[in-house]
Protein backbone atom coordinates (compact mmCIF):
# COMPACT_ATOMS: atom_id res chain seq x y z
CA UNK A 1 0.00 0.00 0.00
CA UNK A 2 1.44 3.32 -1.13
CA UNK A 3 -0.57 6.53 -1.23
CA UNK A 4 0.18 9.87 -2.91
CA UNK A 5 -2.31 12.57 -2.12
CA UNK A 6 -3.24 16.08 -1.12
CA UNK A 7 -5.38 17.63 1.60
CA UNK A 8 -8.45 19.68 0.72
CA UNK A 9 -7.71 21.99 3.63
CA UNK A 10 -9.94 24.98 4.42
CA UNK A 11 -12.88 23.67 2.39
CA UNK A 12 -15.19 22.10 4.97
CA UNK A 13 -13.08 23.05 8.02
CA UNK A 14 -12.08 26.72 8.00
CA UNK A 15 -8.66 28.10 8.89
CA UNK A 16 -8.55 31.88 8.89
CA UNK A 17 -4.95 32.18 7.69
CA UNK A 18 -5.80 30.21 4.55
CA UNK A 19 -8.66 32.51 3.55
CA UNK A 20 -8.80 35.69 5.67
CA UNK A 21 -11.54 37.26 3.50
CA UNK A 22 -14.09 34.80 4.93
CA UNK A 23 -13.57 36.39 8.33
CA UNK A 24 -13.79 40.01 7.12
CA UNK A 25 -15.75 42.36 9.36
CA UNK A 26 -15.26 40.16 12.45
CA UNK A 27 -12.58 39.68 15.07
CA UNK A 28 -13.09 35.90 14.96
CA UNK A 29 -9.90 33.84 14.70
CA UNK A 30 -11.58 30.46 14.35
CA UNK A 31 -14.65 28.63 13.12
CA UNK A 32 -16.35 28.60 16.53
CA UNK A 33 -16.63 32.37 16.80
CA UNK A 34 -17.37 33.24 13.16
CA UNK A 35 -21.12 32.43 13.21
CA UNK A 36 -21.39 34.07 16.62
CA UNK A 37 -20.17 37.38 15.18
CA UNK A 38 -22.21 37.42 11.97
CA UNK A 39 -25.94 37.46 11.45
CA UNK A 40 -27.38 34.05 10.56
CA UNK A 41 -28.09 35.28 7.01
CA UNK A 42 -24.58 36.66 6.46
CA UNK A 43 -22.92 33.55 7.89
CA UNK A 44 -25.09 31.21 5.81
CA UNK A 45 -24.39 33.12 2.63
CA UNK A 46 -20.62 33.25 3.19
CA UNK A 47 -20.37 29.55 3.98
CA UNK A 48 -22.57 28.41 1.09
CA UNK A 49 -20.66 30.49 -1.45
CA UNK A 50 -17.29 29.43 -0.03
CA UNK A 51 -18.11 25.72 -0.14
CA UNK A 52 -19.56 25.84 -3.65
CA UNK A 53 -16.60 27.74 -5.12
CA UNK A 54 -13.54 26.65 -3.12
CA UNK A 55 -13.53 23.05 -4.38
CA UNK A 56 -15.34 21.94 -7.53
CA UNK A 57 -15.32 19.03 -9.97
CA UNK A 58 -12.54 20.75 -11.90
CA UNK A 59 -10.21 20.43 -8.89
CA UNK A 60 -10.55 16.66 -8.87
CA UNK A 61 -9.58 16.64 -12.56
CA UNK A 62 -6.53 18.76 -11.71
CA UNK A 63 -5.48 16.52 -8.80
CA UNK A 64 -5.73 13.46 -11.05
CA UNK A 65 -3.66 15.21 -13.74
CA UNK A 66 -0.84 15.75 -11.21
CA UNK A 67 -0.51 11.99 -10.83
CA UNK A 68 -1.96 11.87 -7.31
CA UNK A 69 -4.34 9.09 -6.32
CA UNK A 70 -6.03 10.15 -3.05
CA UNK A 71 -7.46 13.20 -1.32
CA UNK A 72 -7.64 13.69 2.44
CA UNK A 73 -10.74 15.70 3.26
CA UNK A 74 -10.89 17.37 6.69
CA UNK A 75 -14.48 17.44 7.98
CA UNK A 76 -15.94 19.07 11.11
CA UNK A 77 -17.84 17.38 13.93
CA UNK A 78 -20.97 19.26 12.78
CA UNK A 79 -20.86 17.71 9.29
CA UNK A 80 -24.38 16.29 9.71
CA UNK A 81 -25.87 19.70 10.56
CA UNK A 82 -26.88 18.79 14.10
CA UNK A 83 -24.83 21.39 16.01
CA UNK A 84 -26.22 24.93 15.89
CA UNK A 85 -25.18 27.53 14.81
CA UNK A 86 -22.98 25.65 12.36
CA UNK A 87 -24.13 24.54 8.94
CA UNK A 88 -23.64 20.88 8.01
CA UNK A 89 -21.68 19.87 4.92
CA UNK A 90 -22.58 16.26 4.20
CA UNK A 91 -23.89 17.18 0.73
CA UNK A 92 -20.46 18.54 -0.18
CA UNK A 93 -18.80 15.31 0.91
CA UNK A 94 -21.35 13.36 -1.15
CA UNK A 95 -20.35 15.41 -4.20
CA UNK A 96 -16.66 14.83 -3.48
CA UNK A 97 -17.22 11.05 -3.50
CA UNK A 98 -18.99 11.25 -6.85
CA UNK A 99 -16.16 13.34 -8.32
CA UNK A 100 -13.48 11.08 -6.86
CA UNK A 101 -15.09 7.94 -8.25
CA UNK A 102 -15.63 9.55 -11.65
CA UNK A 103 -11.93 10.46 -11.98
CA UNK A 104 -10.35 7.44 -10.31
CA UNK A 105 -9.38 9.03 -6.99
CA UNK A 106 -9.97 7.82 -3.44
CA UNK A 107 -10.89 9.71 -0.28
CA UNK A 108 -9.55 9.62 3.26
CA UNK A 109 -12.23 11.22 5.46
CA UNK A 110 -10.44 13.01 8.28
CA UNK A 111 -12.46 14.09 11.33
CA UNK A 112 -10.57 17.32 11.89
CA UNK A 113 -12.39 18.90 14.84
CA UNK A 114 -14.12 17.88 18.06
CA UNK A 115 -16.55 19.83 20.27
CA UNK A 116 -14.69 21.81 22.95
CA UNK A 117 -11.43 21.21 21.08
CA UNK A 118 -8.95 18.32 20.93
CA UNK A 119 -5.84 20.48 20.55
CA UNK A 120 -6.54 24.15 21.29
CA UNK A 121 -5.46 25.38 17.86
CA UNK A 122 -7.39 27.21 15.13
CA UNK A 123 -7.43 24.02 13.03
CA UNK A 124 -9.21 22.24 15.89
CA UNK A 125 -12.09 24.69 15.47
CA UNK A 126 -11.63 26.78 18.61
CA UNK A 127 -8.48 28.59 19.75
CA UNK A 128 -7.13 28.04 23.24
CA UNK A 129 -9.78 25.49 24.32
CA UNK A 130 -8.94 21.80 24.71
CA UNK A 131 -11.56 20.07 26.87
CA UNK A 132 -13.23 17.54 24.56
CA UNK A 133 -11.52 14.54 26.18
CA UNK A 134 -12.85 15.59 29.58
CA UNK A 135 -16.49 15.48 28.47
CA UNK A 136 -17.87 11.92 28.09
CA UNK A 137 -20.99 13.23 26.35
CA UNK A 138 -18.91 14.90 23.63
CA UNK A 139 -16.59 11.91 23.33
CA UNK A 140 -19.66 9.78 22.64
CA UNK A 141 -20.92 12.36 20.14
CA UNK A 142 -17.67 12.06 18.16
CA UNK A 143 -18.08 8.28 18.10
CA UNK A 144 -21.57 8.70 16.61
CA UNK A 145 -20.27 11.07 13.93
CA UNK A 146 -17.65 8.48 12.94
CA UNK A 147 -20.26 5.72 12.88
CA UNK A 148 -22.57 7.76 10.65
CA UNK A 149 -19.73 8.50 8.24
CA UNK A 150 -18.85 4.80 8.10
CA UNK A 151 -22.49 3.85 7.50
CA UNK A 152 -22.83 6.36 4.70
CA UNK A 153 -19.56 5.73 2.85
CA UNK A 154 -18.30 2.35 4.07
CA UNK A 155 -19.22 0.49 0.89
CA UNK A 156 -18.26 3.27 -1.51
CA UNK A 157 -15.58 2.44 -4.04
CA UNK A 158 -14.08 5.89 -3.48
CA UNK A 159 -13.47 5.42 0.25
CA UNK A 160 -9.83 4.80 1.12
CA UNK A 161 -10.38 5.10 4.85
CA UNK A 162 -11.51 7.13 7.84
CA UNK A 163 -9.16 9.04 10.13
CA UNK A 164 -10.60 8.94 13.62
CA UNK A 165 -9.39 12.34 14.88
CA UNK A 166 -6.90 14.91 13.63
CA UNK A 167 -4.00 16.01 15.83
CA UNK A 168 -5.14 15.37 19.40
CA UNK A 169 -2.66 17.34 21.51
CA UNK A 170 -0.83 14.86 23.72
CA UNK A 171 1.18 16.32 26.63
CA UNK A 172 4.46 16.86 24.75
CA UNK A 173 2.80 18.67 21.83
CA UNK A 174 0.64 20.78 24.15
CA UNK A 175 3.74 21.96 25.96
CA UNK A 176 6.00 22.40 22.92
CA UNK A 177 3.42 24.44 20.99
CA UNK A 178 2.41 26.39 24.12
CA UNK A 179 -1.11 26.19 22.72
CA UNK A 180 -2.91 28.82 24.76
CA UNK A 181 -0.17 31.39 24.21
CA UNK A 182 0.01 30.70 20.48
CA UNK A 183 -3.80 30.51 20.14
CA UNK A 184 -5.23 32.74 22.90
CA UNK A 185 -8.80 31.85 23.90
CA UNK A 186 -11.49 34.48 23.40
CA UNK A 187 -13.54 33.33 26.38
CA UNK A 188 -11.17 32.80 29.30
CA UNK A 189 -13.91 31.18 31.37
CA UNK A 190 -14.64 28.62 28.64
CA UNK A 191 -10.93 27.85 28.32
CA UNK A 192 -10.46 27.17 32.03
CA UNK A 193 -9.44 23.60 32.70
CA UNK A 194 -8.05 23.11 29.19
CA UNK A 195 -5.11 20.77 28.94
CA UNK A 196 -3.51 18.04 26.87
CA UNK A 197 -5.31 14.87 25.85
CA UNK A 198 -4.10 12.08 28.21
CA UNK A 199 -2.25 9.09 26.72
CA UNK A 200 -4.50 6.49 28.35
CA UNK A 201 -7.61 8.26 27.16
CA UNK A 202 -6.56 8.49 23.51
CA UNK A 203 -5.49 4.86 23.36
CA UNK A 204 -8.86 3.72 24.67
CA UNK A 205 -10.70 6.14 22.40
CA UNK A 206 -8.87 4.77 19.36
CA UNK A 207 -9.67 1.16 20.32
CA UNK A 208 -13.34 1.96 20.88
CA UNK A 209 -13.48 3.84 17.58
CA UNK A 210 -11.95 0.89 15.74
CA UNK A 211 -14.54 -1.53 17.15
CA UNK A 212 -17.43 0.77 16.32
CA UNK A 213 -16.21 1.63 12.81
CA UNK A 214 -15.53 -1.97 11.81
CA UNK A 215 -19.24 -2.73 12.17
CA UNK A 216 -19.78 -0.69 8.99
CA UNK A 217 -16.37 -0.70 7.30
CA UNK A 218 -15.21 -3.66 5.19
CA UNK A 219 -11.84 -5.05 6.28
CA UNK A 220 -10.00 -3.59 3.31
CA UNK A 221 -10.99 -0.01 4.21
CA UNK A 222 -8.34 1.67 6.35
CA UNK A 223 -8.85 3.06 9.83
CA UNK A 224 -6.30 5.79 10.49
CA UNK A 225 -4.97 7.05 13.82
CA UNK A 226 -2.97 10.21 14.36
CA UNK A 227 0.19 9.89 16.46
CA UNK A 228 -0.43 13.05 18.51
CA UNK A 229 3.03 14.27 17.38
CA UNK A 230 4.74 11.37 19.13
CA UNK A 231 5.41 8.84 16.42
CA UNK A 232 7.46 6.25 18.28
CA UNK A 233 5.21 5.71 21.32
CA UNK A 234 2.77 3.49 19.40
CA UNK A 235 4.89 0.35 18.94
CA UNK A 236 2.85 -1.82 21.31
CA UNK A 237 -0.49 -0.50 20.09
CA UNK A 238 -3.09 -2.59 18.21
CA UNK A 239 -0.62 -5.33 17.37
CA UNK A 240 -3.21 -8.09 18.03
CA UNK A 241 -4.54 -10.09 15.08
CA UNK A 242 -8.06 -8.68 15.40
CA UNK A 243 -6.90 -5.27 14.14
CA UNK A 244 -6.96 -5.12 10.35
CA UNK A 245 -6.01 -2.35 7.92
CA UNK A 246 -4.72 0.05 10.57
CA UNK A 247 -2.67 3.05 9.44
CA UNK A 248 -0.65 5.42 11.63
CA UNK A 249 -0.66 9.06 10.54
CA UNK A 250 2.17 11.42 11.42
CA UNK A 251 2.36 15.13 10.54
CA UNK A 252 5.87 16.35 9.89
CA UNK A 253 6.56 20.00 9.14
CA UNK A 254 9.89 21.75 8.71
CA UNK A 255 8.55 24.56 10.92
CA UNK A 256 8.23 22.03 13.79
CA UNK A 257 11.76 20.83 13.05
CA UNK A 258 12.86 24.47 13.43
CA UNK A 259 11.14 24.63 16.81
CA UNK A 260 13.23 21.59 17.79
CA UNK A 261 16.47 23.35 16.85
CA UNK A 262 16.84 22.42 13.19
CA UNK A 263 19.29 24.78 11.46
CA UNK A 264 17.54 27.01 8.91
CA UNK A 265 19.70 26.07 5.92
CA UNK A 266 19.29 23.56 3.09
CA UNK A 267 21.93 21.38 4.76
CA UNK A 268 20.22 21.72 8.13
CA UNK A 269 16.82 20.70 6.79
CA UNK A 270 18.30 17.79 4.84
CA UNK A 271 20.16 16.47 7.87
CA UNK A 272 17.15 16.84 10.17
CA UNK A 273 14.71 15.15 7.79
CA UNK A 274 17.07 12.22 7.23
CA UNK A 275 18.04 11.77 10.89
CA UNK A 276 14.60 12.29 12.41
CA UNK A 277 11.64 12.12 10.02
CA UNK A 278 12.97 9.34 7.76
CA UNK A 279 14.56 7.34 10.57
CA UNK A 280 11.44 7.34 12.76
CA UNK A 281 9.10 6.53 9.88
CA UNK A 282 11.29 3.62 8.80
CA UNK A 283 11.37 2.38 12.40
CA UNK A 284 7.59 2.59 12.84
CA UNK A 285 6.82 1.12 9.43
CA UNK A 286 7.73 -2.24 10.97
CA UNK A 287 4.62 -1.99 13.17
CA UNK A 288 2.09 -0.15 10.95
CA UNK A 289 1.80 1.33 7.51
CA UNK A 290 2.84 4.94 8.29
CA UNK A 291 1.60 7.87 6.22
CA UNK A 292 2.67 11.48 6.49
CA UNK A 293 -0.82 12.95 6.41
CA UNK A 294 0.36 16.56 6.45
CA UNK A 295 3.60 18.19 5.31
CA UNK A 296 4.67 20.95 2.94
CA UNK A 297 7.64 22.85 1.52
CA UNK A 298 7.19 25.84 3.84
CA UNK A 299 10.33 26.84 5.75
CA UNK A 300 11.81 29.94 7.35
CA UNK A 301 14.85 29.99 5.08
CA UNK A 302 12.70 30.58 1.99
CA UNK A 303 10.63 33.17 3.88
CA UNK A 304 13.80 35.11 4.63
CA UNK A 305 13.14 35.31 8.37
CA UNK A 306 12.68 33.06 11.39
CA UNK A 307 8.93 32.39 11.51
CA UNK A 308 9.20 30.98 15.05
CA UNK A 309 7.67 27.67 14.05
CA UNK A 310 5.33 28.87 11.33
CA UNK A 311 3.69 31.77 13.12
CA UNK A 312 1.99 34.28 10.85
CA UNK A 313 1.10 37.94 10.88
CA UNK A 314 -2.10 36.72 12.52
CA UNK A 315 0.05 35.80 15.53
CA UNK A 316 1.18 39.43 15.76
CA UNK A 317 4.50 38.95 13.93
CA UNK A 318 5.70 41.32 11.21
CA UNK A 319 6.72 38.77 8.58
CA UNK A 320 8.58 39.57 5.37
CA UNK A 321 7.09 41.74 2.65
CA UNK A 322 10.08 41.66 0.30
CA UNK A 323 11.57 38.52 -1.24
CA UNK A 324 15.05 37.62 0.03
CA UNK A 325 15.87 35.46 -2.99
CA UNK A 326 15.61 35.43 -6.76
CA UNK A 327 13.06 32.97 -8.19
CA UNK A 328 15.93 30.63 -9.12
CA UNK A 329 17.44 30.73 -5.62
CA UNK A 330 14.03 30.06 -4.10
CA UNK A 331 13.45 27.18 -6.49
CA UNK A 332 16.76 25.65 -5.42
CA UNK A 333 15.70 25.73 -1.73
CA UNK A 334 12.31 24.19 -2.44
CA UNK A 335 13.61 21.53 -4.84
CA UNK A 336 16.06 20.39 -2.15
CA UNK A 337 13.50 20.16 0.67
CA UNK A 338 10.93 18.56 -1.67
CA UNK A 339 13.35 15.80 -2.63
CA UNK A 340 14.52 14.93 0.88
CA UNK A 341 10.99 14.99 2.32
CA UNK A 342 9.38 12.79 -0.34
CA UNK A 343 12.28 10.36 0.10
CA UNK A 344 11.48 10.27 3.83
CA UNK A 345 7.74 9.67 3.30
CA UNK A 346 8.57 6.85 0.90
CA UNK A 347 10.27 5.03 3.77
CA UNK A 348 6.67 4.67 4.92
CA UNK A 349 3.43 4.21 3.01
CA UNK A 350 3.05 7.60 1.38
CA UNK A 351 1.81 11.11 2.04
CA UNK A 352 -0.76 13.89 1.68
CA UNK A 353 0.47 17.43 0.97
CA UNK A 354 -1.03 20.30 2.98
CA UNK A 355 -2.72 21.84 1.15
CA UNK A 356 -4.33 21.85 -2.28
CA UNK A 357 -4.76 25.63 -2.37
CA UNK A 358 -4.47 28.81 -0.37
CA UNK A 359 -6.57 31.96 -0.83
CA UNK A 360 -4.31 34.27 1.16
CA UNK A 361 -3.07 37.06 -1.11
CA UNK A 362 0.64 36.68 -0.39
CA UNK A 363 1.56 39.56 -2.73
CA UNK A 364 -0.73 42.40 -1.63
CA UNK A 365 -0.91 41.53 2.06
CA UNK A 366 2.00 42.68 4.22
CA UNK A 367 4.14 39.97 5.78
CA UNK A 368 3.17 36.89 3.79
CA UNK A 369 6.27 36.31 1.65
CA UNK A 370 7.05 32.57 1.60
CA UNK A 371 3.58 31.38 2.57
CA UNK A 372 2.65 30.53 -1.03
CA UNK A 373 4.50 27.23 -0.55
CA UNK A 374 1.49 25.88 1.39
CA UNK A 375 -0.39 25.88 -1.93
CA UNK A 376 0.44 22.71 -3.90
CA UNK A 377 -0.86 24.20 -7.16
CA UNK A 378 1.57 27.10 -6.92
CA UNK A 379 4.44 24.77 -5.97
CA UNK A 380 3.83 22.71 -9.11
CA UNK A 381 3.37 25.77 -11.35
CA UNK A 382 6.62 27.33 -10.11
CA UNK A 383 8.58 24.08 -10.56
CA UNK A 384 9.35 23.81 -6.86
CA UNK A 385 8.74 20.09 -7.20
CA UNK A 386 10.77 18.14 -9.66
CA UNK A 387 8.01 16.01 -11.27
CA UNK A 388 9.88 12.88 -10.13
CA UNK A 389 9.65 14.04 -6.51
CA UNK A 390 5.89 14.45 -6.35
Describe the structure.
With 390 residues, this protein is of the alpha/beta class. The chain has a domain at 3-251: Alpha-Beta Barrel (TIM Barrel). The protein is built from 14 helices and eight strands. Strands 7-6-5-4-3-2-1-8 form an eight-stranded parallel β-sheet, covered by helices on one side. Helix 5 packs parallel to helix 9. The longest helix is centred in the C-terminal third of the chain and has 19 residues, at 266-284. The two termini are 17 Å apart.
Low-confidence stretches: none
State the CATH superfamily name of the domain at 3-251.
Answer: Glycosidases
Label the overall shape. globular
Report the radius of gyration as a whole number of Å: 20 Å
- Number of E-state strands: 8
User: N-to-C SSE series?
Assistant: EHHHEHEHEHHHHEEHHEHHEH
Produce the secondary structure layout:
Layout: E1 3-7, H1 34-37, H2 40-54, H3 57-65, E2 70-75, H4 90-102, E3 106-111, H5 136-153, E4 159-163, H6 171-177, H7 179-182, H8 188-191, H9 199-214, E5 222-226, E6 246-251, H10 254-259, H11 266-284, E7 290-294, H12 300-303, H13 327-345, E8 350-353, H14 376-381
Parallel strand pairs: 1-2, 1-8, 2-3, 3-4, 4-5, 5-6, 6-7
Helix pairs in contact: 5-9, 11-13
InterPro entries: GH (IPR017853), Glyco_hydro_5 (IPR001547), Glycosyl_hydrolase_5 (IPR050386)
Family: Belongs to the glycosyl hydrolase 5 (cellulase A) family.
EC number: 3.2.1.58
Amino acid sequence: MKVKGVNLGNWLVLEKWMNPALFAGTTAEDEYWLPRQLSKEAYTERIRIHRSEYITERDFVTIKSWGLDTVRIPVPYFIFGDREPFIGCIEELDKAFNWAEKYGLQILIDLHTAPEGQNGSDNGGICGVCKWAQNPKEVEFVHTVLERLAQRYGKRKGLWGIEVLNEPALPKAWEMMDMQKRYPPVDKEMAKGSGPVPYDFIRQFYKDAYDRLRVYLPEEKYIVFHDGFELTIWKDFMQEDKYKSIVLDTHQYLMLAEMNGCEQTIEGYTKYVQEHFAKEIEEMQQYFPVICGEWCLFNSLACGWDTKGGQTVLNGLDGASVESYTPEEKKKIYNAVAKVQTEAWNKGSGYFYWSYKLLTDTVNTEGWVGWDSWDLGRCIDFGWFDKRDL
